[in-house]
Design a protein that fits this description.
The structure is a homodimer. The first copy, chain A, is mainly α. Chain A folds into two domains: 165 residues, Ribonuclease iii, N-terminal Endonuclease Domain, Chain A; 71 residues, Double Stranded RNA Binding Domain (2-Layer Sandwich), CATH 3.30.160. Chain A contains twelve helices and three strands. The first copy, chain A, has a three-stranded antiparallel beta sheet with strand order 1-2-3, with helices on one face. In chain A, helix 4 packs across helix 5. The termini of chain A are far apart. Chains A, B: Belongs to the ribonuclease III family. Chains A, B: Homodimer.
């Protein structure tokens, strides 16, 4: 596998920045870094492993998609005990929609790890979701189902899955916050600014203040998403007040 | 949950025949038998649990489908390292097709456990596959992913999954056996007879003999399936001779 090491970043446990970055992303130590190298290798590099099999993320995408689907299924099954089979199927489709997975991949800035012969701007939007799925596949191969589940909970379910919003009961947290402030005659400000930093993808940050006090912040790849993220956090921060008024 | 116990068979660890039968089917001891009671309860009974949630197999079907899909995905990923994403997707669809799942459910005679207000003959063919999926969901809830995986390997992958046949490279093992016998000028007999025994569903058995010696047996819910099963076994029993002649 040395020929791969030359192309992707060095990955030995001691000196590899790829290993270090992946470990930070996963919140656990990878056992076999090669799975992750594969998860971020685009087929345009035309790499093969020692057995002559294609070395790129496409097959891992298939595996990760199945693992993600089963983790989300078990989450929904337990979370919504009254949900019918049709309801559960529909909710899962929303969570694992191509659009949503692309968003997740972008928010984790996974593209920074991708090795490709095609310029990153030209690979299309789906690469973000595809490598996100491939990463889940790599985790499964490297550490098994429970790590896979833990990762999906940490990176998908806890930060992004909101049953009420998916059900369409809440269409916009920003709307809720504004409505509540107006009703309560509170002054609010939703301040948005570009905050890309060193990242490849443009990012925006949002600060929400109520009566001069900062309540929540959000940061994402679009203004709208960052606003919703901050508003959702503000909603949960204020939930006791909101639901009792 | 006592009201359920009255309808489904008694299920305490010591005296329950349902518990005993399920344990035999699973090859391991169930922890919480209620999951399995649910997996075999049809909605026509209109049962609820103590929290007022529907007590039937429909939600478990959703969960089991996802678990089965992920186990098959990981099996195929490892088994066929040269298979592209498209190939893997197609093979999985064949394995988890409605028709195939119904066949699996029938072969395990799962219908014998079903509690329903509708006569078993009137529930339609899909019930066999549906309760098979629900059973996988129940195993996941009761014992976790690894038991689920073990069950799918024992009951689906090892006895039924044959990559060459799924790929269409071998369309009929019976054809292969006959062709080989004719080429080798060997006498063969394929003997089929009804063999239902005490079961609810009609069963057939098949014996294959070559030059007067019994080589393999098969048993299934249709003549054709029993013949293919016996022929496949005969093929593997004779493989060394077949491939070297």
């Amino acid at each position: 596998m040395n020929f791969i090491r030359k192309i992707v970043k060095p990955s030995s446990k001691n000196d590899g920045s790829f290993y270090h970055d992946i470990k930070q992303l996963l919140n656990f130590a990878p056992k076999n870094i090669e799975h992750y190298e594969k998860a971020f290798t685009h087929r345009s590099l035309k790499l093969s492993d020692k057995d002559g099999n294609a070395f790129n993320y496409e097959r891992l995408e298939f595996l990760g998609d199945a693992m993600l689907g089963s983790v989300i299924a078990s989450y929904l099954y337990k979370k919504v005990p009254k949900g019918t089979e049709g309801y559960l199927t529909q909710m899962r489709s929303k969570i694992v929609s191509r659009e949503h997975l692309n968003e997740l991949g972008k928010d984790l800035n996974l593209i920074r790890f991708v090795k490709s012969n095609i310029a990153k701007e030209n690979v299309g939007d789906n690469i973000h979701g595809n490598i996100f799925e491939a990463l889940i596949g790599a985790i499964y191969l490297d550490k098994g189902y429970n790590y896979c589940k833990k990762f999906v909970y940490e990176k998908v379910i806890i930060p992004y899955v909101d049953i009420e919003k998916l059900e369409g009961k809440i269409t916009s947290y920003k709307g809720l916050i504004i409505e509540w402030c107006q009703k309560q005659k509170k002054k609010y400000s939703i301040e948005t600014y570009e905050d890309t930093g060193n990242e490849l993808v443009k990012h925006f940050s949002v600060k929400i203040s109520i009566d001069g006090e900062q309540i929540a912040k959000g940061r994402s790849t679009s203004k709208k998403k960052a606003e919703e993220q901050a508003s959702k956090r503000a909603y949960f921060a204020l939930q006791n007040q909101i639901t009792h008024t």
